[in-house]
């Protein structure tokens, strides 16, 4: 069973959270939607063995949509939780000896980032910085690996994981009487909290030669770098 909260639990928690916050002086509640685009990356292993050299590393375009719930105190300190569905997929190519390796790896995933936001409370244009943890629940992965025009039998595996995440951005207040609508945008980066530099962190098996070549690759992404833009209403 995946350990992260389901959308139903998140919705119930959000309702209770927002109902309490609305009753507190100096606390504003923001509800937002946004899109994101960027890159997901798994770098090559640090070792110098033949198996290390055969691993291509992966990078690909990450896209997704999501929504946020934020409680902000005195316009300066916010606690923001998000719910994101994204496509986290990539490919890699490397020349290893006589082998030209071409591979793809990834899956769709649910991301639940929980961050602290530090906001400069000035009119119209409000810069902010954020830091927190992104909880990731990946779906079933897909992987392919080819060398010399031959498709290698390839499987992949993943589990729920979490990433340190940080970013900077700003929000622009729209001049609409009676409504507090803002356009937030940001640049963010995340790093897997449990993903090291060795081949053991990247695969269970990677054998390109011999009578039965095969591979079993880890599809959890080590780094995410992406931008977001959306709209939010505050109460």
3D architecture notes:
The protein contains two helices and 13 strands, in the order H-E-H-E-E-E-E-E-E-E-E-E-E-E-E. By secondary structure, the chain is mostly beta strands. Strand 3 (77-96) and strand 4 form a beta hairpin. The longest helix has 16 residues, at 7-22. The chain is elongated and about 70 Å long. It starts with 6 loop residues before the first helix and ends with a strand. The mean pLDDT is 90.
Order of helices and strands: HEHEEEEEEEEEEEE
Largest sheet: 8 strands, antiparallel, barrel
What is the oligomer described by this structure?
single chain
How many helical stretches? 2
Give short descriptive properties of this protein:
2 helices; 9% helix; single chain; 235 residues; three-stranded mixed sheet; eight-stranded antiparallel beta barrel; elongated; mainly beta
């Amino acid at each position: 069973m995946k350990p992260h909260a389901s959308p139903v639990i998140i919705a119930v928690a959000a309702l209770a959270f927002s109902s309490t916050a609305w009753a507190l002086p100096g606390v504003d509640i923001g509800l937002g939607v946004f899109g994101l685009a960027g890159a997901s990356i798994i770098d090559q292993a640090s070792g110098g063995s033949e198996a290390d050299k055969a691993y291509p590393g992966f990078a690909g375009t990450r896209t997704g949509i999501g929504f946020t719930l934020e409680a902000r105190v005195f316009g300066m300190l916010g606690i923001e939780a998000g719910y994101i569905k994204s496509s986290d997929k990539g490919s890699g190519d490397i020349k290893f000896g006589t082998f030209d390796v071409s591979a793809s790896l990834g899956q769709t995933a649910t991301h639940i980032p929980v961050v602290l936001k530090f906001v400069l409370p000035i009119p119209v244009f409000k810069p902010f910085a954020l830091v927190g943890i992104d909880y990731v629940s990946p779906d079933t992965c897909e992987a392919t690996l080819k060398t010399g025009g031959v498709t290698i039998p390839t499987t992949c595996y993943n589990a729920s994981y979490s990433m340190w995440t940080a970013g900077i951005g700003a929000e622009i207040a729209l001049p609409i009487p009676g409504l507090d609508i803002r356009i937030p945008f940001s640049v963010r980066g995340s790093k897997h909290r449990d993903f090291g530099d060795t081949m053991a962190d990247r695969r269970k098996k990677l054998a390109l030669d011999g009578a039965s070549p095969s591979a079993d690759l880890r599809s959890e992404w080590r780094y995410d770098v992406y931008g977001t833009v959306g709209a939010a209403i505050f109460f």
